[in-house]
Specification:
By secondary structure, this protein is α+β, with helices and mostly antiparallel strands. The protein folds into three domains: 86 residues, Phosphorylase Kinase, domain 1; 183 residues, Transferase(Phosphotransferase), domain 1, CATH 1.10.510; 348 residues, Methylamine Dehydrogenase, Chain H. Helix content is 18%, strand content 36%. The strands form eleven sheets. It has a five-stranded antiparallel beta sheet with strand order 1-2-3-5-4, covered by helices on one side. It has a five-stranded mixed beta sheet with strand order 12-38-37-36-35, with no helix packed on it. Strands 14, 15, 16, 17 and 18 form a five-stranded antiparallel beta sheet that branches. α4 packs antiparallel against α5, α5 runs antiparallel to α7 and α7 runs antiparallel to α8. The longest helix is centred in the N-terminal third of the chain and has 20 residues. The two termini are 29 Å apart.
Length: 645
Amino acid sequence: MSNLLTNLLYHSNYRLLGLVGQGQFGRVYCASHRRTGRLVALKELNRDRFSTRNFLRELRFLLSLQHPNIVTCQALEHTATGRCLVMDYCEGGTLRDLLSDDMQLHPLQGLSLITQILAGLDHAHQRGIVHCDIKPENILLGATATGWTARITDFGIARLSQELSTEGFGNTGSPAYMAPERFYGQHSPASDLYAVGILLFEALAGYRPFSGLPGDLMTAHLNQALVLPDIIPNAIGSIIRTALQKLPARRFRSAVEMLSALQNAIAECEQYLMQGWSPNILQHSSATRVIVPFRHDYQESLQAPVRQMAALQDNSATIAHPLYRVFSNQIGYQWFSEPELFNKTAFAAGSEIKNGSDLSSFPLTTIRLPEPALQLTICDQACFVATQQAVYRLALAALQTDLVQHQQPNQDALIPQQAALQLIATLKQDAVLTIEPGGRWLATATPSLDKTQSQLNIWNLQSSPPFKPAITLSIAPCLQLLAIDARHGVALSPITDSSANACIVGTQIELFTRRGTIIGCISLPIPLRHLSSTQTPYRLLALEPGHPNSLILLDLKPLRIKRIGLSITPKFLASTNWGYLVMDGAGQIALINRMGQEIGQIDGPTNPTAMALLNSYQVAIATWNGTEGTLSIVDLRHLDLDIVF
């Protein structure tokens, strides 16, 4: 992020949240209005690359364009050294993100975005404005409950249709999407429609019709014949052929004419385009999935179902890893160790080495609770357990680290101490809660009697018991709380449509501090559930009820929403330093890197009830079939997967 711009905007109306894009004329930032919290895009324009004359041109174009499929300009922000355009913010990234090589977009979703682009271009063309640089990077996306909304941006080299070809920017543009006449500095509305034809081809075929270096692209656009793959239906292929005619006069006469033809073709080919796609699937991986068989390094039989598991991820290979389990109204904890270290201390600890195992364990210790446990949270030095009426802390003495420090065997190094159960808070029914990762504070939210709001209580767990709420404030009706770092938390609330029988149409996220200050409110146009934190700062995982095969990556600073299309329906989520693991109800496990790309799948055990990570490479999975179950630990290093630990 530009420190200079941050300093220059210190006394302005906006607070920078992060860099979201870099254009040929300047940077684009996500920012929030200091008073209202509304998110905007600040487009910083470099005076050396973008003269005052061109700046005023773009500003004039933007102010004259008001359309839902065009990014509009809201205001102008001056700094001591320059100026910024204040524009609509789109949290879904760009069309390029959806047309990536590793992800295939649902054909109807892609066609819907093309129709929206044509609608926006029709609005611009009717006002005599030719964009001249239509490409996926200049199509921003707004996330919606049904998919995405396309919005055209970057009118930096746009032209008026009556301007002479020798004026302004010449043949500036993106060669992969430029019409033949654009290489000679000519432009017209038909030039934009040619670029849309390239987008239409790419959305359905997964690649562009012409490729190569800029010189090769120029030759291809001017002379190379169009070849349509069989995957494109004839009705839509006819539209692409018309849009990609070499001569502008042979193309569609207007954007609205092309839009009408495309809408008719979609209606004609809809059933064909849906073949091979399940309902509510927006996208899926286009790469060949590597599916590896399940191989456990440790396994034991269970006498009762495990409802939840958690572990404090520790990547050290020289100490034991604790795993916590929830058995209805009992909490169990157990230590696991690498065999080289375990062999030196097992007999002193009174444990047994399991023959044939690649991982060894200490005996399971259980503690009974007054009522069933509902939530389990692991912090640095303690385990917190929530029931319907109370929160308890399971304090464990820290493991001795003589073995790590001195690199020599110590018979007592791995002997765990007995846990002590401590009452932390008494709750009202229906309360939701979260605990800061370091165990320093607790936040609870309880609905009001009329369900119109929730009472947020923040408890300081560093004070002496008995603990009482240190801060109380009112927030929107809360479904989930989540502490995202040592000082901040988020409250998730549904957005309902009163005209549609209170149907949930979106999600509201309120950000608060541990001192009880609401620092922002984000309204997302998609319903979310099961938020979970990750090891990337300010990044959350979430599930989307309307699209059960999607995993949501939600970045809060700056706000970005990324959908990851999966071949499974995720039920259990886990995050580690290299990416994410998701498991469905049948035991299939998908591994996803931090960029959102699927690495592979594990053909896991059936009837899973819980999943947890001991460290970045060991995964614990509990199963139960109604009468019996197993606890298995899998070492990902022993599987044929392309993961760098």
